[in-house]
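Running log. JK asked me to keep both predictions on one page so they can be read side by side. First protein, sequence followed by its tokens:
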Amino acid sequence: MSNLEKAILIIDEELSKPVPKEDVTLEDVADELDEVLFD
């Protein structure tokens, strides 16, 4: 699985969490991406 695919899964997961959308900031998503892309 490529890093891009992992990133997409993580973003999808983040967005599907039962939190109001405004609570998920781009910064949160960027942090998640950093973790995946630079492991």
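And the second, directly underneath as requested:
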Amino acid sequence: MKICLCVSGQFRNIDRCVENINNFVDSLELKHPQAKFDIYIDTWEEQGSTSDFTRLLPDEFTQFMPIALNRNDRAKTQDSNISALLPFVNRLVDEVSDNTPVTQKKLKDIKYFCDAKIEPYKQFEESNQQLFKLVDSLNLPRGMLPMFYKIHSCLELTKKFAINYDRYIRIRPDQKIMLSAFEPEDILTAPLSILFHPAYSRGRFSSDQFAVGDSRNFGRYCSVWQYLEQYLTNEIHLLSPNLLNPESLVYEHLSYFDVSWRNIFHRPYPHFIGGKVLKESFFPEIIRLVAEGEYHEALESCIDQSLYFNQISDDRIELDNISEAIAKSKFRLKLLKSHMEHDVLNEYEILSELLQSKNNISKSANFAAEQRLAKLSQMLPG
């Protein structure tokens, strides 16, 4: 069996990504010792960091962030993402990112390396300005453009040697995937298999991160880029264009061309390689901003919910309207600051005053405050 591995997308920490790809190939070889492998890489000169801040910033902060704040590549024309609201985040992200250029020499450390295409991202951005403007107008993630382009381009790269492969595999360089974690483990048998994401449930979504298939079906999977502009302008109607996020695009694209596929499961869901901003370096800046009130209303609500009420709830209860209720309260900043500084007495006094006041807060907010107050009373000295 001849297997073609198409690795496309941005390398984030090239040494770890190279090791990750080699580990995946090792797991394939254990299962298919007679198989022959060729690996093709299609990536950018720049390494950089992910556009999804949920992979970089502390979980305590990001888990309840609105989607417009989560990504720094969505709605570039609006002041609605966290890198714009909190400029210091860019510095912290740079500190955990590897910014050395990607080179052919480094990629040749990958087992069964066959060929690579490395392009400057700025050149791609400049040659697709109108498409980026279209994505911005629909408030879709900008990262979908280079991603779908590279998926398609990598498959085109494989045609250079006119080799007929039995199976093609699309992976990202920064996603940690092992064959032994798949259900079913033998992922090479079906015409097209696509990684199932637990967040998709059973809706009209298909992963853009990992796929395995034969030449015909895999080729269609990789061809979103060729039709992308027609989809986004509604020249070819799939859904309302503003609903065409990457996972919806893959699903609707395959359905449009009558391609069947099966879901495959990776347990646990594969995590991403890359730096992580430690909360020890992130939260002191947040506390300073909270104390000085130097941030946007949307971020205030986000911080209130994720750093205070989610943190104090042992059961991690989702509290309806909590951020809205606290955003209307004059106690918001003082409450969060005292909590983050572990000033139990001050937090107790502020919560007591909040509950005794005539602030119009929701029942869930009132319940959370009462529960926290009871816990604080046990922590007070004497």
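Observation for JK regarding the second prediction: The radius of gyration is 24 Å.
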